[in-house]
Amino acid sequence: MNMNTKSRISSILKANTLDVSMVGLQSFNLSELQLDHDLDFLLPTNIRLGHLVEKIVSEFIRLSSNYEVLYENVQIIKDKKTIGEIDFIIEEVQSKQVFHLELAYKFYLYDPNISSEEINNWIGPNRNDSLREKLEKVKTKQFPLLFHDSTKSEFKNINVDEAEQSLCLFVSLFVPYKHKGGFSHMYKNAIQGYYLNLETFRSLDNATKTYHLPSKKHWGMDPSDNVVWTNFQGVENLMTTFMKEKQAPLCWQKCNGTYLMFFIVWW
């Protein structure tokens, strides 16, 4: 599937932003940007998903009438070593308030067996990262980086100490298949689908269903914009390979004009 630029752009505009005030961080939501609705611009094709989303958000800020990008993707270097990166320094046009904005685009699955605390149970599809770890990293590494001596020398023309710091955390959340428990409001809006294992997926297949395994660059896009679909046999070999390699793919399903998205997990 070729990158449908308009669909990719609109998927970011519609993406759910997690309210991170519960961990003492300030949220930035794209709804704060004053934008024309019909947005279209060229996207780079050869970069990974996280960078692609950064490029799209960067364009949004540039095209907005109320914010400006002062800096983006600034590598902070000390003793010839990169110690981190600042995603964005932006300025609100009227108030001249400067913001250090960090951005993330994440997919988390809910594993109820981890703990009794909801926030601890959101993990990456391959179990190698988590929502809690991400929030901790922002709090303890990414935000403090702004006040590092090496950073101050990068941003000589702004007063770093007066900058506000915000996190724009786009999340798509997935819950266990047939999960019965409820979720607090802040997570509920971001639930996009479910996850299951290959055996369950196999047992649910029937002739009315077709599938597509989007590449990671297409995660988060609207499945109804996809044109190439295949039956279960068309994805079965790929699935088996994914499971052997301990990779949990995202799967889109089309059935009688309705679309679902779910992860197929190896664990």
Structural class: alpha/beta
Q: List low-confidence stretches.
A: none
Q: How many structural domains?
A: 2
Helix and strand succession?
A: HEHEEEEHHEHEHEHEE
Determine the number of helices (DSSP H or I, runs of at least 4 residues): 7
What Rg, in angstroms, do the CA atoms define? Answer: 20 Å
Share of residues in helices:
25-40%
How many strands in all? 10
- Strand proportion: 25-35%
Assign an overall shape. globular
Query: What would the average pLDDT be, to the nearest integer?
Result: 93
Largest sheet: 10 strands, mixed
Calculate the terminal CA-CA distance, rounded to whole Å: 28 Å
SSE topology:
Layout: H1 5-14, E1 26-27, H2 49-63, E2 67-78, E3 81-92, E4 98-110, E5 122-123, H3 131-142, H4 149-154, E6 164-176, H5 185-188, E7 191-197, H6 198-204, E8 209-212, H7 232-244, E9 250-255, E10 258-265
Parallel strand pairs: 1-6, 4-6, 6-7, 7-10
Antiparallel strand pairs: 2-3, 3-4, 4-5, 8-9, 9-10
Provide keyphrases for this structure.
alpha/beta, 7 helices, globular
